[in-house]
Design a protein that fits this description.
This protein is α+β, with helices and mostly antiparallel strands. It contains ten helices and 15 strands. Bound molecules: N-oxalylglycine (OGA) and manganese (II) ion.
């Protein structure tokens, strides 16, 4: 059976059908999905409920696994409870290890809310995340969509003057920046040190499609050589431009959906829902290849 792709939005995204992603993949199926990811940036598979084992096996077909923000959670002083047998399977839910819904005051709820700020998963580390794969297990009756925007499209839509002005800028990303913005500041020194900030070029070339793109989001906190206030305003302006409603795909979840996105070039965010109502998704994530040459500053590239 041939894999089929049906566009989800005029700019990017497709629904993939004609493949059972719970079965082991042939090499040519992995290639077909990689090719489609490079074109569409977001792929949706509907109606295929997966066990954690099946999700991890599928994810591993696309590269090594990313641990991401869990390194902050499990550093000394953090919590250790986890609902899954796999450390690399992120618990994107408002549910605690004892299966009850987390209290409003808990860090679990802060995590849900932090995911509602536009971001790219693990943009705060090198290598960063390549594919995130988010699988819906329990969805709320209202709200809780996940939205996507394409940072390649955003670059293409910038005027030539702005492109020229920002082309060589370097941006610092820090894992806890979005938490601090939400007033969630009570982390131990070990947690703060668990993921040191990294610098990424603001404008990069997507290795999979050869297209230029912005690389911003909730972890971006500073621009090298620029006053903080000016840098943050520029980052906000670029984020507003990137996420203009005409260029956003908003995914309404059904149980058994898997959505895959390319963190190198896409931004995503969760949308609000009743935090007292159960919402359970599981995210597995692959690591990107070691940093592409044009994504490093000249000094780093020749080092
Ligand atoms: C994620 C994420 C948003 C959501 O899983 O990485 O940001 O809607 N999720 O839960
Ligand atoms: Mn995310």
């Amino acid at each position: 059976m041939a894999i089929r792709f049906t566009p989800l939005h005029a700019d990017f995204g497709a629904e993939m059908s004609g493949i059972d992603i719970r079965e082991p993949l042939a090499a040519e199926q992995v290639r077909a999905i990689d090719d489609a990811m490079n074109t569409y940036g977001v792929l949706l598979v509907r109606g295929q409920p997966m066990t954690p084992d099946q999700q991890m096996a599928f994810t591993r077909s696309f590269g090594p696994l990313d641990l991401g923000f869990r390194r902050v959670k499990t550093a000394p002083g953090g919590d250790t409870g986890h609902r899954f047998a796999y450390a690399e399977l992120a618990d994107i839910s408002n549910v605690q290890p004892d299966e009850t819904i987390a209290a409003r005051e808990s860090r679990k709820i802060v995590s849900n809310i932090a995911n509602q700020i536009w971001h790219a998963d693990s943009s705060f580390q090198k290598p960063r995340a390549r594919y995130s794969m988010l699988h819906a297990v329990v969805v709320p009756e209202h709200g809780g969509n996940t939205e996507f925007a394409d940072q390649r499209n955003a670059w293409d839509r910038l005027d030539a003057h702005t492109q020229e002005r920002i082309r060589d800028l370097k941006v610092e990303h820090f894992a806890l920046h979005s938490r601090f913005m939400l007033g969630d500041t009570d982390y131990t020194e070990a947690q703060i040190a668990a993921i040191p900030p990294v610098v990424w070029p603001l404008v990069q070339t997507h290795a999979g499609s050869g297209r230029k793109h912005l690389f911003i989001g909730a972890h971006a906190r500073a621009i090298e050589g620029m006053v903080v206030a000016e840098a943050r305003m520029l980052l906000w302006d670029l984020l507003e431009h990137t996420t203009h409603p005409d260029h956003v795909y908003s995914h309404r979840w059904q149980v058994g959906d898997l959505v895959i996105w390319d963190n190198r070039c896409m931004l995503h965010r969760g949308r609000a829902f009743d935090l007292g109502e159960r919402r359970e998704l599981r995210r597995s994530t692959t690591l990107d290849a070691p940093v592409p040459a044009d994504s490093e500053s000249p000094a780093e590239a020749t080092a």
